[in-house]
Specification:
The chain has 391 residues and is of the alpha+beta class. The protein has 14 helices and 11 strands. About 1% of the residues have low confidence.
């Protein structure tokens, strides 16, 4: 009898194609929205998380706002920071944008990044070809540089840039390394074309003796609270205890906060998308109630011939579940396609979340059962005599 109920339920759905399609449309939209939103948010979250992980979760980022009398840190103060217990290295950053010239070819708006050897010691996967900048380059202010892959292609075309020269601010630099292009948010804002030079050279380009951005690498991130306090003691002394003159950010704490925010955002988006599923469930209930009314005679005949109320209820409940599952499957593929297209457009990785699939399909099935139960119970409780009066 169960197989017969399945056949009858499916036959009734197929017999009313247009009505069935319009009924499941709400389920399709709801499931597609849940799949797409969760997948897109997961992809963006993973991209941001990977960027912070690449920076190192054992890294402290120090940004200097300065005071009226003191604009940044000098090298003696950097030395004090490097000597603190728990600090494995100090990497200053001096950033500016300048045109770069090679044999008459000008590349405007190139991001010039002044770094030291500590930065390259921790960014071991950055260099694709050649070598990194070392301590000798820093001490002697050697006119050497590392350029990004994209800049190499634009200035040197099919040739390797290693050993070649370029001009920055009228000064000739020799290319000693090629770095991989970054897909980070910083690259999106500043451009992928980068040139890394010794930080003292970059300070000369800016005409400043102050450093306003420093990365501190910790030996043990579990001791971050004590290390941060030690760093603040040095900075307080440098800026006359004006704490608003600087900020110290623990990237690990920032990453945890971002994960919390994205988790809350995902939950909120799923809640909003679920409204479409509820609307779709109401549509299923409405169709099933209409179906029960239209098929009153059929129900009466089946009961008169010995069909039990449970069998009638199962048939109508199966019909409701089929509608929800059919909409869920279509919505699943539609949501995956939408998420894939959006990920291509915004340039983030496509990450298919199996939890999202289980949530969306499971929720759609639950909607089918919940909103199909009342019409099924109504059909099973019809009195055969009252049902046959409509014949």
């Amino acid at each position: 009898m169960f197989k017969e109920s399945i056949k009858m339920s499916w036959k009734n759905i197929v017999h009313n194609k247009m009505r069935s399609f319009l009924t499941v449309l709400g389920i399709v939209i709801g499931v597609a929205a849940i799949i797409a939103l969760i997948t897109i948010v997961q992809g963006v979250t993973n991209e941001v998380t990977s960027e912070f992980s690449a920076m190192g979760t054992n890294t402290l980022s120090v940004q200097i706002r300065g005071t009226a009398l003191k604009k940044g840190l000098n090298e003696k103060e950097l030395q004090k920071l490097s000597q603190l217990e728990g600090i494995a290295g100090v990497s200053p950053t001096v950033s500016l944008q300048m045109p770069v010239i090679h044999h008459g070819t000008i590349q405007e708006g190139v991001s010039i990044q002044g770094k030291n050897e500590v930065y390259f010691r921790h960014e071991t996967e950055l260099i694709k070809a050649g070598r990194a900048l070392n301590a000798l380059d820093m001490n002697q202010k050697n006119r050497v540089c590392i350029i990004s892959e994209s800049l190499e292609k634009k200035l040197y075309f099919a040739h390797s840039a290693l050993g070649e020269t370029l001009q920055i601010g009228g000064i000739t630099y020799t290319v000693v390394g090629v770095a991989e292009d970054s897909t980070s948010m910083e690259s999106m804002m500043n451009g992928a074309e980068k040139v890394y030079v010794p930080f003292r050279n970059a300070m000369t380009m800016t005409g400043s003796h102050n450093i306003t951005a420093v990365d501190l690498y910790m030996t043990d991130s579990s001791q971050s609270d004590d290390i941060i306090q030690s760093v603040k003691n040095v900075l307080n002394s440098a800026f006359n205890y004006k704490e608003d003159s600087y900020s110290v950010t623990n990237l690990e704490d920032l990453l945890a906060m971002m994960n919390k925010v994205t988790g809350m955002m995902t939950t909120m988006l799923v809640g909003i998308a679920s409204i479409a599923l509820l609307v779709g469930g109401i549509g299923i209930m409405n169709m099933m109630l209409v179906s029960v009314t239209e098929r009153t005679t059929e129900i009466g005949l089946r009961k008169a011939l010995g069909a039990e109320p449970r069998q009638i209820q199962i048939q109508f409940l199966l019909e409701s579940i089929f509608l929800a599952l059919f909409g869920g499957i279509i919505g699943l593929f539609a949501g995956i396609l939408a998420a894939f297209l959006v990920s291509l457009y915004i340039g983030f990785g496509f990450v298919l979340s199996y939890q999202a699939i289980l949530l969306a399909v499971g929720f759609s099935t639950l909607v089918g059962v919940a909103f199909g139960l009342a019409p099924a119970r109504k059909a099973s409780r019809l009195n055969p005599i009252d049902a046959l009066r409509s014949v």
